[in-house]
Amino acid sequence: MRLSQRNQEKRLNLRDKHVKNEHLTASEKISEFLGVVRNLFRNPIYVGAIIGRIADVLAFKGFFVFIGKYLEIQFGVPQYKIQKYLAGAGVVGFAVGVMIGSICMKRFHLQGKPNRQLLKMFLCAV
Question: Membrane-spanning regions, if any (predicted)?
């Protein structure tokens, strides 16, 4: 039984029209990938965001690497006690963050995908 012209127009086309039907060799795929990466690194907004993120990570990691040594020198506390205190503070901070986050999600009826933008704005404000 043939479908009418109208039903054929309504049918969902599951083929992606943007996919090329060419079979590329490995070297062609690599050169295409390198071209895309080159274009990406020419985007000044992307490069600035990456540099900012790298500086943020380095500052954050540097703080945690050197805070123990600083406390040891500044206050004369043994290294094993400092590590115990820092670990306890990290675990407690993580637990409090999870609890506050779950309470906010439950109380304000938030879900992950629909409220992603709201979460991003809140994190930027903090």
Answer: 45-65, 85-105
Mean pLDDT per 10-residue segment, the chain (126 residues)? 60 70 84 93 94 93 90 93 93 94 85 74 78
d(CA 21, CA 28): 14
The whole domain housing 86 covers 78-126
Whether residue 65 is found in the same domain as residue 99: no
**Tokens standing for residue 104:** 């906010």
How many Å apart are CA 124 and CA 68, to the nearest integer?
28
Exposure of 7 in the CB half-sphere (CA atoms within 13 A):
4
pTM above 0.85, yes or no: no
